[in-house]
Amino acid sequence: MPAEQGAPLTVATEQAMADELRSWLRGEVIDRGHPRYDEARAVWNGLIDRRPALVARCAGTADVVQAVRVAREYRPAVSIRGGGHQVAGSAVCDDGLVIDLSRMKGVHVDPAARTARAQAGVTWGELDAETQLFGLATPGGEISATGIAGLTLGGGFGFVMRTFGLSCDSVRSLEIVTADGVVRTVSREEEPELFWAARGGGRGLGVVTSFEFGLHRLGPEVAGVLALHPYERAEEVMRAWRDATYTAPDTVTPELLLWSVPADPAIPQELHRSNCVMIGAVYGGPTGDGAVSALAPQRELGPPLVDLSGTLPYVALQSANTWRFPDGERYFMKSHFADELSDEAIRTLVDWYSRRPTPESLIVVRTLGGAVARVGPEDSAFAYRSARYNVSIDAGWRDPALDETAIGWARSAWDAMKPFSSGGTYVNFAGLGEDAGELRGAVFGPHEERLERTRAVYDPEGLFAMAARRP
Questions:
Q1: Domain check: are 31 and 121 in the same one?
Q2: Is residue 311 part of a domain?
Q3: What is the rounded CA–CA span in Å between residue 266 and residue 228?
Q4: Which segments within 359-448 are labelled E, that is strand?
Q5: Contact 456, 205 (CB under 8 A)
Q6: Would you say residue 152 has pLDDT above 70?
Q7: Do 247 and 349 sit in the same domain of this protein?
Q8: Residues 240 and 205 in one domain
Q9: Is residue 94 part of a domain?
C-alpha cells in the first residue's frame, strides 16, 4: 500500500484495486487496458489530458461507498466526476482513482412540494426537462450540458440568479458520502456546518451523490433580451449598459458579452463571426407587459445590428449557447469580482478583447445583486455576495498549437483587470490546476479557514485533499 495518499501506485496495486472494485460495484470499472479507457478519461475541456489508473463508474450510492472504502484502503489520488464540464478538468486525475457519477441520472420532481431530487450525474438540460413539465425551475447554469453537481457546489451563476439566487441557494438538502464511508443527508437542520460548506465551497468534503432543490414558478415560456450591437460602439454601449444595471429590478438578470456574431439563421450571413457587443437579459417571472417594461432598458442602448429579443421556452434559453462550447475543444477561463465597472475598466476590456487570439474567445460581464446579495454573507460558503459584477475572460480554441497563445492572452487580460477587481475569483472560472496556489484565499475569501476546519472534521486524513486544492 502506498505510504501516503496520492503516491504513485504500482502495477500490482492498481490490479488489486481494480479486482476489489469489480467484486463490489454494480457499475463498471475501467482500467488502462479497457477498450473505453480513452472515452472514460475524456472531459469537456479538450485541453485536459490526464491518465487515471482506474475509473469507477458508479451505478448508485452503494457503489460510491465501496469506491470510497477502497480509496481509503489503498490511498490513491482521488478525483470526483459529475458532469465533467468544469474548465479546470478536476474530474480526472493522473495515476489515481476517478469516482465517476456521470451514469447516476435519476430525477424525481414533486410538483406539490415544489422540489426536485436529482443525482449527481444529471446535467442542467436533463433537470430542466423534468422540472419544466410542471412549469418549475431551479436556477442553473447557462450551458445545458453542464453538470448540476460541480456548478452548484461552486455557487452557480445562471440566467435568473438575480431573481432566484445562485444554484446553491435553492439546495434544501444533499446526500454526501464522507471519507469515513458514511452516507449523510445534510441540511440546515442536519449537520448544518457540512451543509454550509457544500454550498459554494463543496470541493474536498466528500462525494455528493444527490441534491434536493427547491423549485420556483418559471416558464415554460420566458421573456428575454438578446441584442447585438456594432463593435465600433463597444465602449459607448458598455457604459450605457453599466448605467442600466444600476436600476435593473431584481426580476432582471443582465449580461454583456464581447464576442462574435453567431452563425444563426435568424442573423444575416454577412454578420456571422464579426465582432459585436452582445446584450442579454432574462426576466424571472411571467411573460407579458411587466416583463417587457422591466427589460426595456436593456434594449434601449442605441440601434442594434440585430435584435432577437422576445419570448422563448425556458429549456431553449438554457440550451441556446451549448452548441458554441462543444465537447473536446480547448478552454481556459478566469474571472474577477468587481463592485464597479469604471470607464477605464471598460476601455481595458475592449482593448484586450481586440487582441483575442481566436473567434471563439470572449469576455463576459455578469450582473450579480438582487437575490444573490440578499443571502447573508455567513449563510453559505460562497464568499462574494456583495459584488455587483463578475468579469470572466474566456479563451476558446481548437488547435493545440495555440495553447500557449490562447492561455497567455487570457492570463494577461485577467492581470490587466486586477486593478478594477474588488477581490476574489469565482471557483468555477478560476483557471487550471496550476492556478490553485496563486488563487489560494481568493476563491473562498474570508471563508477559507472555516472551510479548512470543516474539511478536517469530515476528512481528517485528507482522502479528498487533492480535490480541495484544485480550482
A1: no
A2: yes
A3: 12
A4: 362-367, 389-397
A5: no
A6: yes
A7: yes
A8: no
A9: yes
Same-domain status, 47 and 92: yes
Domain match, 230 and 128 both: no
Q: Write down how long the chain is.
A: 471
User: Which three cell numbers mark 373?
Assistant: 446579495
Phi, psi of 125 (to 5 degrees): -60, -40
Look up the CATH number of the domain holding residue 180: 3.30.465.10
Share of the chain above pLDDT 90, in %: 89
Structural domain ending residue among the three candidates 60, 80, 100: 100
What b-and-e string marks burial along 124-143, b requiring 16 or more CB atoms within 10 Å of the CB? Answer: bbbbbeebbebebbbbbbbb
pLDDT at 1 over 60: no
In a domain, 461, yes or no: no
pLDDT single digits (tens) 182-192 = 999 999 999 99
How many domains, the chain? Answer: 3
| Residue 390 neighbours by CB distance under 10 Å | 22
* pLDDT tens-digit map of 396-423: 999 999 999 999 999 999 999 999 999 9
Residue 69, classed as helix, strand or coil, is: helix
Mean pLDDT of 456-463: 96
Closest CA to 26 of 47, 48, 56, 49: 56
| Count of CB atoms situated within 10 Å of the CB of 183 | 16
Residue 45 belongs to some domain of the structure: yes
Describe the strand order of the beta sheet including 207-214 as a list of residue ranges. Answer: 107-110, 115-119, 207-214, 171-177, 183-187
Return d(Cα 169, Cα 213) in angstroms, integer.
9
Mean pLDDT computed over 286-294? 96
Give pLDDT, residue 433: 74
CATH number of the domain bearing residue 407: 3.40.462.20
Range of the domain at 152: 107-218
Q: What one-letter code names the amino acid at 265?
A: P
Question: How far is 69 from 146, CA to CA, in rounded Å?
Answer: 28
Other CB atoms within a 10 A radius of the CB of residue 65 amount to: 18
State if pTM tops 0.85.
Answer: yes
Same domain (yes/no): 33, 115 = no
**What is the average per-residue pLDDT within 172-187?**
98
Q: Find out whether 14 and 98 touch, Cβ atoms under 8 Å.
A: no
Closest by alpha carbon to 363, among 342, 388, 382, 389? 389
pLDDT digit string, tens, across residues 67-104: 999 999 999 999 999 999 999 999 999 999 999 999 99
CA 370/CA 161 separation, integer angstroms: 8
